[in-house]
Records
---
Amino acid sequence: RVSSDGKPPKFQPPPKPVIVDRKTQKEERRFLSPEFIPPRGRTDPLKYYIERKDMIQRRKVFNIPEFYVGSVLAVTTADPCASDKSKRFVGICIQRGGKGLGATFVLRNVIEDQGVEICYELYSPRIQAIEVLKLEKRLDENLMYLRDALPEYSTFDVNMKPVPRMAHEEIPLNKLQVRMKPKPWSKRWERPKYNIKGIKFELPEHKMKAAQKWSQPWLEFDMLREYDTSKIEEKIRKELNEELEK
Amino acid sequence: MRLSVAAAISHGRVYRRFGLSPRSRLDLLRNLVTALVRHERIETPWARADEMRGYAERLIDYAKRGDKDERAMRMADFWLTEKDLIHKLFKVLAPRFQPHPGSYTRLLQIPNRDGLDRAKMAVIELKGNPLPPLVRPRRDSDKTLLNQLLKGYRQDAQRAAAP
């Protein structure tokens, strides 16, 4: 490089690297497990407070990962009859129910052409490990319709490898529309009360119109049925974060 | 022939049953809410007024969100059958109740209805309405102990100040 006046160019120090400290930037957990949110009712909040303390105790000892309905999990439970004293089951979570310590989740899989659903309790001491193989969300909160869907949508490989996921990434929403077996189904999933978005209905038009007869359009305007959990959630989230940091 | 007992038990149910069906119940309450917003004080059977109170207060909470809010506008559109009242709701009632966090209505019982059914009636009104007040705050009579003592104290003070 040609210098300005014959002398070597003045030493320019390189720009200082900006150290982005990921840890302090965003460490608050934005996910609150649904069993922490107390349901609407006349029970004493003390009951939920005591249950929450026990749930936090358990979570400190055993890691319950974040998962949603539609994610594929592998659960190892203790079993006295098995040779290794433990059993492993892999399946897709179709429902998360219950509040407090009795919170459950149902895993479904099709093994040797037989559909199997097992309902596990999240806080049961018999559970030795919960592993999330594939973390994703689906269009509905309840995937019970997989019982009437073609078996390919519920089969998952028992020796599936966990799908790697970057931290701080959005949870992927799987907009899969499932194809169903021919009717009759266990429930009339086309009716608006189930409000299912994840099925590709191949029913004739007049059947879909007939199902709309059971719709209740006034329900969305019924203001007293709304349960706003945002403030309760914030309080519980703060409480959880404080307790788990200790 | 034993009819089902389970159908008659309603433990823990919060919503009363009105009209012919749930849709009809909401329509009934909707008419009452519209009347309340229009006249700001109405006289109805107590059960209907009590049921309507919750809906009226939630409607005002929605109105407080402002008329730019899509959901608030849809709610107001459903709940107010006379559309000129939507303007009144957002422009008059929402600013009036902005400082208050809740309880925008007052429910007072009235003597039973004169007709054959002798229904328990109530008057429900929005607070801060321009009509004359329903309850006149009465002062205690002069004969109560406290008032007599205060009267005596005032007389003593006057006698001491007079000469």
---
Amino acid sequence: MGEVELSCRAYVKMYLHCCLFPRCSVNGLLLSSSGSTGGAVCVTDSVPLLHSHLPLAPITQLALTQVDVWCSQTQQRIVGYYQANACVSDSSPTPCALKIADKISEQCENAVLLMFDGSKMAPDYRVPPIVMYERRDSKWTLKDKHTIMLRQWEETRAIATQMLESGDQALLVDFDSHLDDITKDWTNQKLNSKIAELASPANGSM
Amino acid sequence: MASVADMYDVTWEDMRDKLRKWREDNCRNSEQIVDVGEELISEHASKLGDDIWIIYEQVMIAALDCSRDDLALTCLQELEKQFSDSHRVKRLSGMRLEALERYDEAGKDYDAILQDDPTNTAARKRKISILKAQGKSTEAIRELNEYLEQFVGDQEAWHELSELYINEHDYGKAAFCLEELMMTNPHNHLYCEQYGEVKYTQGGLENLELARKYFAQALRLNNRNMRALFGLYMQAGHGAKENKCSVKAVEEMLESMQITMS
């Protein structure tokens, strides 16, 4: 099946989202800014959505609509969905995760469902604490690890750890926080710049 | 490493008062409580008088939240020395075992409390929390239902039950729990709005109509509740032509409140 590449920015924002709300289930969307290239998907950004009442419909629908509109304005498209469960020992997709991922795969052929594995997020983790699923024969099945790429994983991990230690997860705005204070920017431009700054010595084209 | 007192230019009294405020507001800002509390305990313990015991309890719980078992153990040991036979301290000891994922031992502690005092609600709720932490939602729901048969007025428990039902996608029962909460808290806009969301999720003409009513009620109680406003907007867009005027009404309301992104 197709390859999936996860960018530094996408990973770090998801990671910080999980760290900002360690006691809640969190979810969000995965975006891509490039057109589909023969089955390979390049996830360039992530949008954190909710940290409360994930299975409830109205806010999820609202968020999907708003992200859709933003994507069409910025030449991006929604290519996947991520979720981290509150219960650390359980990293399997919940029914609402499957539902949202199904909806995304209606619009995007190689949609990806990403679950965070809480048990692997200890400070000394060596491998990406994520599990990916793809849609095969109308079912979401585990993706072959070898088709998932994180370029410059060591640098990405270093950036994520550094930002966590300096408390930068407090800068992250998810859709829920945006609804609590409508002036907050759920596209996280400030955080994106910060991540780019930290990434630039390593690789100019992150 | 700079102390909290130096970084924020506060006295020990300010720190003590801040901790009290966080206690009263039931805030779960554990990292801050640990920073402030640890310094207060280690450097100003003698000045705190009898306040120190409740601060030990507060800091201990916050320390468990931040995986600071060293600090939690210190606080617990001080409390055990002072209050050797206390159920309240035994519950804290159980919470520490929970944090270390030693659920069976924690359960034994709580069972011991309940044998002595079957009406001890804190111990019963901790037992339900253990089930929740282990992912045993069905059992947690069953136990919580039994608990609520006895302690019908426990709002925290009703809210917890509504959350458990929502996670199990049992929206009907979640709605029932929220109805209980709205009856006893008719002025709480958050419950009205959550009820609206649950009804919206259930779907169907009647439920959407109810959702609209409760979103509107939430807005009446607090006109800055964005979720209720958006809920009303989303619901208005659902369905027949006569709803077009509702959409317009909501748009006008949004404009008049001048709520924009920029």
